[in-house]
Amino acid sequence: MTHTFADLGFPGRLIAVEGLDGSGKSTQIYLLKRWLEMRGLKVFFSEWNSSALVKSATSKGKKQNLLTPTTFSLIHATDFADRYERQLLPLLKAGYLVLCDRYIYTAFARDVVRGCTPAWVRGVYSFAARPDITFFFRSHLEVSLNRILDNRPTLKHHEAGMDLGLSTDPYESFRIFQGRIFEQYLAMSTEFDFVVMDANRRIEEQQGLVRKFVEDRIGLDTYAVVK
To answer: What is the set of domains in the chain, with CATH numbers?
Structure first.
């Protein structure tokens, strides 16, 4: 998994955003999508854990607490592989700009925190090429946590990392869980050449930097819709 889609000769390009829940990454990729669409470019958006193929299995497994860390990891990998083969690769071959709200690095962070070894998780996803650009939105941990907790009066069992036995208090468990995920992201940021964004800056300021970086790195006119 050392090659990007550009390295592999794909006409399309893949841009991914990563970061903790509450870091603002989803807002930033949505704004980027709208900007690219307004420029008349061929754009496709995909998000983590969205394949219809495995959604019901994931939901059932969580509700009945049937998922071991390995099973949890493999279900998400199946979801990703389905989207990768059915959506991402065909569109990249067709010359689209593909925007991903989370990519394989989400699994690298979460699955390792849940107890899988880094080498094993990387092996599971070894079929996937690296994004051409990966933005990591680095926010203060407490800011991200407060944003999430403000919008979720009740935390879900797996969302709070309660399956790991970190704490009997779901909010404290959530803080520990997210803190460990954050540490994984920091370690990966140099390993995978993330573009680290200061997610504590104003939304408009961040978006301006994102757009400039994308424009400088990718020849956007190549992706205009032919009329």
So the answer is: 13-215 (3.40.50.300)
Element (H, E) at 55: helix 52-63
pTM given for the model: 0.91
Q: What number of other Cβ atoms are within 10 A of residue 140's Cβ?
A: 14
Rounded to 5°, angle at Cα 74 from 164 and 105: 80
User: What DSSP line would sit under 83-132, residue for residue?
Assistant: HIIIIIHHHHHTT-EEEEES-HHHHHHHHHHTT--HHHHHHHTTTSPBPS
90: tokens are 């065909």
Q: Which residue has the tokens 């909010």?
A: 171
Q: In which residue are the tokens 């979460």 written? A: 110
Enter the tokens of residue 207.
């978006």
Q: What parts of the chain have a pLDDT lower than 50?
A: none
Closest CA to 29 of 103, 108, 116: 103
How far, in whole angstroms, is CA 56 from its chain's centroid?
21
**Which pLDDT score is estimated for 65?**
61
Residue identified by tokens 């680290």 is 196
Distances (CA, A) of 83 to 76, 89, 127, 128: 11, 9, 13, 11
Helix %, strand %, coil % for the chain, to 5? 55, 15, 35
CA 187 to chain centre: 16
pLDDT digits (tens, 9 = 90+) for 89-140: 999 999 999 999 999 999 999 999 999 999 999 999 999 999 999 999 998 8
